[in-house]
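Run log, item B.
One chain of 114 residues. Sequence copied directly from the ordering sheet:
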Amino acid sequence: QVQLVESGGGLVQPGGSLRLSCVASGSIFSIYAMGWYRQAPGKQREMVARINKGGSAFYAVSVEGRFTISRDNAKNMVYLQMNTLKPEDTAVYFCNKFPPFNYWGQGTQVTVSS
């Protein structure tokens, strides 16, 4: 199965930025649409951004204009640049294909707080 490893989370003040990275094992990475998802405490996991194999991106309304998803098929990497972060962006962030596999990586914690 494809392994997914997320990194880049941390504690940041409101208005700050973070860049998340995800590496996916497997030579068939490039055929998948990939997405970033997040799960806040007590809430369901939600998709925040996805990017198809050709590079077209789509965003949740809550992050549009602040987050940018990108991918590097040669490196099996997908990224999420997050700007103007808000406390409500606090969550564990996961990458997965879109639609997702029925398994997930460990995710990376993003905490936005002053």
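Observations after the first pass:
- The mean pLDDT is 94.
- Residues 48 and 60 are 5 Å apart (CA to CA).
Flagged for discussion on Thursday.
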